[in-house]
Amino acid sequence: PTPVFNKRVIDRSAAADALFALASPCVYQNYEIPALGFIASCIGALQVEMVGAREPIGPAVLYKFISHLLK
Fold first, then answer.
1. How many CA atoms lie within 13 Å of 24's alpha carbon, on the beta-carbon side?
2. I want to staple 45 with a disulfide (CB 3.0 to 4.6 A). Which of 6, 24, 37, 54 is the partner?
């Protein structure tokens, strides 16, 4: 099991899509499995905060989220 990165779940329907959209290029670039899992979990945690996939989650938002978790 992985830790819960977000407790504010609004809509989980697009979380898997966001996770796979980010994980696929990471796998192609040969990211290590723990790093891949962490990054994919972060993008999934961000995606469940919004309804559907109305707007993309940009790199700056993801970097800020990861930085906040690692502090």
1. 5
2. 6
The pTM is what?
A: 0.78
The sign of the CA dihedral 62, 34, 44, 14 is positive
The pLDDT averaged over each successive group of 10 residues in the chain (71 residues) is 67 82 92 92 86 83 92 86
The pLDDT assigned to 62 comes to 92
Distance, in Å, from the CA atom of 30 to the CA atom of 33, rounded to the nearest integer, reads 9
pLDDT reported for residue 1? 44
- The counts of H helices and E strands in the chain are 3, 0
Greatest Cα pair distance, the chain, in angstroms, is 32
